[in-house]
From TrEMBL:
Residues 4-283 form the UvrD-like helicase ATP-binding domain. It catalyses: ATP + H2O = ADP + phosphate + H(+); Couples ATP hydrolysis with the unwinding of duplex DNA by translocating in the 3'-5' direction. Belongs to the helicase family. UvrD subfamily. PANTHER family: ATP-DEPENDENT DNA HELICASE SRS2, UVRD / RECB / PCRA DNA HELICASE FAMILY MEMBER. The lineage of its organism: Bacteria, Bacillati, Bacillota, Clostridia, Eubacteriales. This is DNA 3'-5' helicase. GO terms for biological process: recombinational repair. Pfam families: PDDEXK_1, UvrD-helicase, UvrD_C. Residues 284-537 form the UvrD-like helicase C-terminal domain. PROSITE patterns: UVRD_HELICASE_ATP_BIND, UVRD_HELICASE_CTER. InterPro entries: DExx_box_DNA_helicase_dom_sf, DNA_helicase_UvrD-like_C, DNA_helicase_UvrD/REP, P-loop_NTPase, PDDEXK-like_dom_sf, PDDEXK_AddAB-type, UvrD-like_ATP-bd. It comes from Ruminococcus flavefaciens. It comes from the Bacteria.
Amino acid sequence: MLTQNLSQKQIDAVNAIDDDVEIIACAGAGKTGVVTRRIINILKSKPEISPENIVAFTFTKKAAEELKSRIYTMGQAVLGNTQGFANMYIGTIHGFCLNMLQEFLPEFQPFSVLDEIHAKLFVERYYTEVGMEDMGLQKYIETNLFVQAMSLLNENWFDEHKWDDNVRSAFKKYKNKLYSEKYFDYSLILREMVEQLESNIIFRGIVADKVKYLTVDEYQDTNPVQERLISILKELGANLCVVGDDDQTIYQFRGSDSSNILTFMQRYNVQKYIVLDTDYRSTEGIISVAKNVITNNSNRLPKEMESGCKTPYDEGDVVFKEVTLPEDEYEFIAENIEKLHSIGVPYSEIAILLRKRKIGAEIADVLDKHDIPFIIEGMNDLMYTAECRAAKGIFDYLNGEIDMMTLYELWQNVDYPFTRNDLGNAIQTIMTIDISQMKHFTDLNLQRIYQDFLKNAVLVEDGRKETEMILYNLGKFSQVIGDYEVINFTRKPKSKLDSFCKFLHYTADGNYPEGYLSNDYIKPDAVSIMTVHQSKGLEYAAVFIPGLNKNYFPAQKVGGKSVWHVIHREWITGSSRFDGDLEDERKLFYVAVTRAKKYLFISRAKEARDKTVSTFFLEAQCSPCMLPYDSNTVYDSAHLPDLRHNKIPLTLNFSLLEDYFDCPYRFKLTVFYGFNSPLTELIGYGNALHAVIRNINLAAIDGTKITDKFIEKTFEQVFHLPYAIEAQRERMLKSAKDCVKRYLEHKDRLGEIRLAESPIEIDLGDGITVNGRIDMVKEVEEGGQKKTVIVDFKTANKRVLDAINTEQLKIYALGYQHLTGQIADFMEIYHLNSENSAREPITAETVQGVENEIKTAADHIRRNDLPKRCGAESCAKCRMAHLCLNKSERKKYLGG
């Protein structure tokens, strides 16, 4: 079964498990299937290797989910079970490093990771302390440049001796400030991992014991620090398999170094080299065009690509079109989308791939006129919507930038049937807020002000499509507030508000997509308009590549101030790779072409701003399959390629499912629409206490003596409350220490612990995955027999008897079965604050029942069937009631 229906080269790759190997996989060569089978072959053939010894780095989380799903399916088919697969790491290189640092180095457990937006917010809040001022950069205006520079320097910190004193000082300040606030950025995760492996002998040994087989996908896009990490893991004894394609190196602007894949065999003295050069995705017509273009590159590994696709190539499938004006070009695209759709090609199987986003809106306007549904991926237009301009107006008013009538008019422009009275009440409430009288940061909660406004305006879902879109965007605006307050929650009120308004003006604008684009659970049948970079790893029945003029594709170099105006090129080894050249642009065009399964349309307008024809437009025409467009061409519906009918993958965690099982509509409000709960100064207490208990339990499993000194050190390392003032922190610290003291009054029970904070992953097939962690598993003796008990710790004010029968705890039971192959005997709730506990038996029916419930939940989520199903008591307590209940329901449930 492992090698069924594979080519000989694919079989060779699957069986290459004793030696290091480089696999060059052309587009559509089935590399995911090969990597899947190779990993299962390792587990099948090497009894000394367990799933936790296998690590696979993917370029994106989405790629990881696909690979992981296939590994579970193949594991079940070949091995008969997937026990322990939850301990196998399949994911990004950053995720792996973060996991290892936080799993084995307690001082990093409280750390959170700043994404790009949070990093900008952090720098703007601590402008002086992070060294930005030292480098002479303007706050807000040049934040991007500073963040880019710090990331670049962190990924090349081993060249620090080349830098000047100002930059070296800023670099040190930036890291120190991040660490003092318990934050990583993405570049610091990798730097810390490498430095720990190079200096921490104990940690080095732990990693060496864990990583026995390492697979690196998309190896062509690794940068210097990633390559340094891979090299160290190889030194520690890992079998190394890299998979990639030098022709698809398209992330040089992020620092990826194509020389890594070009020189891999020589640098690692690898003898096993396999080229998967058969493309099973694309017809011979697509392959002919791709080859005729990419062979013009000189700096590439030798390979001959051929088509193994079963879909026939028909004349007219692959065409070029030259028109006079850009609007004629966009009409050509729309008309052919209609023709393809009329023969059975779903809109979702059609993509328009852009070199730059600037023409995306113009194409969208033409599709709109033709009533063709579309999604513009990566168009960050959230702040241009009427509802988000109105939401922004709330804070502009509070900051004295607009008057009350302007705020009222902004909300009247929103396409929602507000009553005059409701909108007036909402604005009247805002008018009573006096920022000048607020002294403490907790006095000004931006999220609460925002959601109170929506509550008073009585904005709730009413069955209209327009209202649904408004709620998507207002939910996304809630995320904008959440992003800001994560970094700035503890600022003084006036400063917080003023800074937030600047954030909305300088940073948020252009950085957030409209809300519905963020819903990963429901994807409409619509044409995708995206950049070529965004299309990497995707495939479509038909692909349109417009704008093939010089300076658009290939792209013209962008002017203006760049990172090289902030740091010197000679400080970064191989800095020229960031610039890109014609060969890099040709790789990008090659990637665009090879996204197509059957139909390819390339086009240009002679009277576009850049009138000169693109060299790629001419190179593509060297293929005998690339024909001039004939409007009389009739597409054969009997020759369609395989069309996607797979359901959208669903990766759910325990918290998401808990929301769903409590109330599906609350799940919709928080997950689909994206509404955040307001922060509080005491947030994080439960996680901090859990972290302390976790470390105590893990130490007990390892046989470490739990002394007062150990406990005190554990608290110092992991107990972190990011927003508590000192008096509150001391109070919560005392509470947590009291909980731990009570917990340790039964130290003899520590010997019963078998697992602590154990990751579980449940693959239910049909694209459904559930993951999370079990707090504790212990083995107790009852009636002369050993019994396994799954324990969930609680800190919230929820009665244990209410919690014991929830689906969440039953999911733990299901996860334990998937992890070990065994059904535990009991599930138990233990309340850390009170020591109250409750226990229920686990049966095969319990486990099977919750598995069926999860599958039913996934089906409802995919169908957007998420009704309100709360009783009065639940609604009264619900944190999202203001977005759910209309006025009559509020009177009934909330008393007015």
